[in-house]
Design goal:
Length: 107
């Protein structure tokens, strides 16, 4: 573990020292679709999208874990079936909790 930390630290330190840093207005300007931005470049998103993003990530993680499990279901046996069932139940409890709290309602 200590060697890994040294390796990563050394690599980061060397990359910072070796990369040339020449700031200029062209490199630091906001660029999008070949057109100059008009007004503020920073857009404030509605906070309600945050809940939808969290629920999407939770369900996306569920799918990421379910796919390899489903492919190898016969070799894994009953223990893996029970483990993934518990995992799905925990995710679904969180989803139902968010639903009942009104996180999915747009007010």
């Amino acid at each position: 573990m200590y060697d890994f930390v040294k390796f990563i630290s050394f690599g980061l330190a060397k990359s910072v020292r070796l990369i040339p840093w020449n700031p200029n207005p062209v490199k630091e300007s906001t660029y999008e679709c070949g057109m100059e931005t008009v007004g503020k470049a920073w857009v404030q998103f509605n906070f309600r999208y945050y809940f939808y993003a969290l629920l999407f990530i939770a369900l996306d993680v569920l799918v990421v874990f379910l796919y390899p499990w489903a492919v190898e279901l016969r070799q894994l046996g009953l223990f893996a079936f029970i483990a993934i069932l518990i995992f799905v139940l925990i995710i679904m409890v969180g989803y139902v909790y968010a639903w009942r709290k009104g996180a999915l309602e747009w007010k």
